[in-house]
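User: I'm writing a short report section on ligand binding and want a predicted complex to refer to. Could you take this sequence and heme C and write out the structure as tokens? A short remark afterwards would be nice.
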Amino acid sequence: MKATFKMPFIHIIILTGLCSLYLYSCNNNTAQTDDPPTRDQMLEQGKYLVESMGCNDCHTPTIMTPNGPVDDSSRFLSGIRQTDTSLQPFDASEISLIKSGGAIILPTGAWTGGWGVSFPANLTPDSTTGIGGWNADIFIRTIRSGKYQGVLAGRPLMPPMPWKVYSKLTDNDLKAIFAYLQTIPAVHNQVPSYIPFNQIPIEK
Ligand code: HEC
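Assistant: Sure. The structure tokens for the complex follow:
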């Protein structure tokens, strides 16, 4: 005998109602998780990323103490100090070290290697010497393309800026970093221009 299953009309109505309720609640959940973060959440996420991804290690100058170098918190993320940018000429052994793939980190925070001399940038919102004149698009383009100031036809960002690592972050994370950087104290500090390898000062 064939088994038959008859569903009374009223059951169908109740079932349809329950399904709609379930779908509504799913949609509703999705809508909640897709909500853009609030500004406070964004700034908190940006601070968290900046503090956990090492920006400070290169972009904040240090002060020497008896216990070693400590961050100069009054110059948070403002790049190599404008007053510390004169370069002593490199001697023959330093040049041969660089040529063999080594790198020299100067006490000021400038980095010298086979690419030349690079100076950690001023990431504070100062409008002329920092990134106060940037918007999130320029910031994202800079990190994603690894091009100085986000100019695609311009020069590449030099080591050791780990832009390839940061380029893997989502747009929302990069926007959060940028939003947070725009809230830190602006420091007027002109970081010198990158020096290509063939222009490194060499001891005579
Ligand atoms: C290991 C050192 C190092 C770390 C860590 C680092 N940077 Fe950099 N960064 C540099 C150096 C050096 C430059 C300058 C490169 C150049 O001039 O070509 C630079 C350049 C930049 C620039 C480009 C500025 C411009 O005018 O185009 C941005 C933006 C930037 N860094 C943001 C960050 C952020 C945000 C973090 C953390 C998430 C970070 N950096 C971590 C060393 C570092």
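A remark for your report: The pocket of heme C is lined by residues 50, 53-55, 57-59, 111, 118, 120-121, 123, 142, 148-149, 157-158, 160-162, 166, 177, 194 (CB under 6 Å). Confidence is low (pLDDT under 50) at residues 1-5, 15-31.
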